[in-house]
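User: I've been trying to design a sequence by hand for this structure and keep getting stuck. Would you show me what you'd pick, starting by listing the structure so we're on the same page?

Assistant: Good idea, let's start from the same input. This is the structure you sent:
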């Protein structure tokens, strides 16, 4: 189920509009934290050289912002116990 499917399902069961349901879902996701799961943060990737695989030509890959995930202790323990 993707985000839009979730909004559609919640809106259908509550009778609320899809736009208001989407706003409420966004607010919940922004404030909800899963204790022990981990945390997300932003990172930076520097500009670097790469190759076009079809031509072999050297190209410059621009700098970019990235998403970083750091797992929490409870999540690491659960994965390692399996």
């Amino acid at each position: 189920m993707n985000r839009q499917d979730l909004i559609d399902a919640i809106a259908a069961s509550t009778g609320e509009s899809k736009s208001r349901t989407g706003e409420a879902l966004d607010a919940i996701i922004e404030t909800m934290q899963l204790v022990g799961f981990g945390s997300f943060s932003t990172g930076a990737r520097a500009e670097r050289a790469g190759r076009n695989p079809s031509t072999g030509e050297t190209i410059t890959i621009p700098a970019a912002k990235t998403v970083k995930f750091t797992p929490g202790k409870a999540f690491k323990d659960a994965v390692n116990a399996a």
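That's my pick for every position. To get oriented when you compare it with your attempt: The first helix runs from residue 3 to 14. The two ends are 26 Å apart (CA to CA).
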